[in-house]
Protein 1
Amino acid sequence: MFWWAKKHDEAEKTIISPNGRVACKFLLKNNQVFYSIKKDDRDIIRQSKLGFLICGEEPLVDNLRLIRTQTKKHTETIEMLWGEDRYIKNNYNEMAFYLSEDKNSRRIFTLRFRVFDDGVAFRYEIPPQPNFRRITIADELTEFNLSPNTTVWKIPAYQPDRYEYNYEKCRVYDLSNSVHTPLTMRTENGYYLSIHEAALYNYGSMTIKLNENGILKSDITPLSDGTKAHVDLPFQTPWRLIMLADSAIGLTMNRVMYALNDPPAQDFSWVKTLKFIGIWWAMYVGEWTWAPGDRHGATTAHAKEYIDAAIRLGISGLLIEGWNEGWEGDWLENGINNKFTVSTPDFDLEEVARYASQHNIELVGHHETVGFVDNYENQLENAYNYYALNHINYIKTGYAGSMMTINGRKEYHHSQLGVNHYQKTVELAAKKHICLDIHEPIKGTGIERTWPNLLSREGARGQEYEGGALSPSHACFLPYTRLLSGGMDYTNGILDIANSVKRIATTITRQAAYFVTIYSGMAMAADRPFIYEERFPDIFKFIRDVPTNFEKTIALAGEIGGYYVVARKDRDSDNWYIGGVTDETPRRVLIDLDFLDNGVYAAEIYTDSPDAHFRENPFGYEISKKHVGKNDRLDIYMAPGGGFAVRLVRQ
Ligand code: NOJ
Ligand code: CA
């Protein structure tokens, strides 16, 4: 680190990563503050401005002066309760810049930077000060000044289906409409980065937009009153995080987001990851309905049948959707009437819960709020108590409306009020020892480190969009984009792919691969039990065997939107699992098994057959077995829209 102070209104200081490759420069010039980032002495982010606009006050951006700095070196290994990796490095050099205005009311704030080998993060911290205690943020001015030619993979923000869109590739100069983070990019000099945030609490989610000067700037999701956030001081923003990697596949192993979050908030030793089936896909293919009637899915009888099936299949959980009052008629329109403690007449929750407990099956309860947050919050305590009393330890929540209704007003899911609502559910659930899987969630920002009962979320276009709105490339984008923000409930394992109602754009083997390529702390085996038991018990074996908690993850190969190959070691055994997916292009991958420990492994290999094709021949698959060791190599074929799954059992 080096430093020189010029006039008191000018300063420049560089913070270097532990391995020396990443340099983040802080600059005070003309009484304004900026930062820039280089890797290997090459530009990643050029000089970018920082500051705030505050309602009813002068902007907090000009007239700044550096009072003092503070440096820190931090070296730590974090242990995660569950996830893709048990151990995560938290090694960084930190510098805090204490700033004050030299005019106006001499307000003060701190800019704290952390520079990691694979990322840079910074946040604003505003302490309480006289006449400056509760503030309304009109805008956060944080810029990310990248070359306009930088390649970007984006989904749009502020759209009715929240994060559920297909990824598109474009250039920075195309980003005039706001896009969500993680916003993954490739610089002209070949580095990969993703702009995201960590520890999002009590603030609007950051989207990104090109400003009038052609520079990318934070666009904090507004509230319905047009402001960005109302906060009491002290206040700190989420970390603004720039993940860095030399390759696209390297980016998928970035865990800085978790390192930036606090340790667990309480004892969470009761949290267990879960694999579950559900009274679910039968509704999507039109066999059953959510609403009561002749074809009602969530009846006591069906639930017991599914519990019996879960036992036979060796799956520990069962989701039941459509069990409560509120689904009648157009459920999207009528969601304001949903009752979360009242079952439909043909569903006896106590009886089903008793039957499940007796057979050691975990029920996954369901709360579809349709975004009517006021209605949900009025019932929240009672609804969670009702489940807790019935030993229901997992809840899938949903917010399928295009906006939320909070305090009687329409708000974005990813606004400050939306963020606070989700957090309220996570904390109340933690208190009652309940784990959550949130659909239509707020994006992940690593808070699962602090709140590990938040086992999964959706937050991207999932398999419910199959039947026309998903192409084989979609799941090849996710590892490099959405999944950088944490696990996802993609609702894997639909093996009835040729169903005429919801034709799936994958081969059958790829549905097994998803359990490795798309991590989820709550992993749904989404098809109906008879498909697993009667039609494809051989492929289902992989779905049953694959764990939901891993010791370590090694991403092996891939290209954004093209393909992805990953190996993961089980947390509770010496076994390894490998999965791969490809877009419409057939591919052959050679996998060096040098990551294995010494010894012999029995490999069970599930691949597309040479004539398989996601459209023409989706059921073409082969299952083979052989013994391998760390000096061996697997030669695997993936058909168009296909994939593969391998289980390696240590002998
Ligand atoms: C959307 C969710 O993603 C899906 O899983 C759920 O079945 C429906 N909403 C109904 O709640
Ligand atoms: Ca959804």
Note: The radius of gyration is 25 Å.
Protein 2
Amino acid sequence: MKLTIIGCGYLGATHAAAMAELGHQVLGMDTDTEKVDALNKGQAPFHERGLDDLLTKHTTTGNLRFTASYAEAGAFADVHFLGVGTPQQSDSDAYDLTHLFAAVRSLTPWLADNTLIIGKSTVPVGTTKILREILHEHSRDFANIKLAWSPEFLRESFAVADTLRPDRIVLGLAPGDTTSEAVFRAVYAEILRCGSPLIVTDLLTAELTKSAANAFLATKISFINAMAELCEAAGADVHELVAALAYDTRIGPRGMRPGLGFGGGCLPKDVRGIIARAEELGAGQAVSFLREVDAINLRRRDRMVDLAREQCGGTLIGKRIAVWGAAFKPDTDDIRDSPALAVADALHRAGAEVTVHDPMATDNARKAFPHLEYTDDATAAVTGAGLLLHLTEWTHYRDADPADLRRHIAVPKVIDGRGTLDRERWRTAGWTHRALGRP
Ligand code: UGA
């Protein structure tokens, strides 16, 4: 089948490559010409495991191309996916939908007859109503344009695998739309054949599924981080608490790792976005607990700064601190709302001299936080420092040799913000080891 993907960021570029892998002919469209040029050369403008290989494979055969032209996208296919980014507004908690609306406005005049548009962007519930109005206003033949919604649940650093083998696919259809499900099933035939369940529902429920999923995931993380706060107050150990809780299959271990909390381009924004939308709908009280989820999450960053100050003898002024980690989670170079960088920046503002190491994200970090020091060598970051903070749980750090590092650091103190360093190993090597949520 011929498909387009409008918007080629984390979601769109991965979706385009995955659709080509399924055997479709795919045209990705993005207004950023530099991004389009890189993608046409088989290079994603961000790091995602396996994505460059897929892009190279399919741009070489010609089954996957990228363009900056809406006219070309409109003419190319009669199935169009929307993967345009919907960040948080700069001055409110709500989603910024301007790029999404602009993309649909620009694409619509070029659409062929009998077109299906499938939205994948994360949007507040009710967005498809506005998109239908835009389609109505700008199309030549509104009656023959269908709009469906199929939210994306991929995780960064597992994006290719999550797109090709999703744990579920959700499809929202407009009332009376009797044809789009068959087209959708044809696009996803291979994935459905492999057993991914398809849930067909209405547009509003499909839109809400994504916000609800991310709000739940965020709540699970903040729940265990609230328990970590309690552990800190009581002298208990949150990691042992998790191990004990996880045996209850209704609770389970996944998505409940305590530590510095959640960051990235999705969970923080989606928690705030669902609150903002619920308030618009007059249902703010139903999700008011999510404000606390957000607050617990942000408190972990403050707690890390306080612990660092405590370990530095009560003041951060002039203290040399090594920060391991800049990405919002391991195996990505994405630094959006990174807890690690938020802490590094706060330490710098409190007067510390901060050197940041990350296996992949220092280029992006340097652009966003140019005032911090960076190094490509984890040992160099530590050399001469008075404290080491472990803030993103790369395996590189877990595997580091504390005995060797002990020879380079001025004062052998480490605070583990992610709970993945082997405490006994570090202590045996002569380090003072502290961790969030542990005595
Ligand atoms: C998240 C969701 O997991 C995806 O299902 C969703 O599709 C995606 O957002 C999206 O909306 O596009 P992602 O942001 O890639 O995916 O990352 P996660 O793996 O969920 O991690 C988010 C943050 O939570 C990271 O900072 C991570 O370190 C933190 N986290 C995660 C914890 O602190 N504890 C955990 O147990 C899990």
Note: The mean pLDDT is 97.
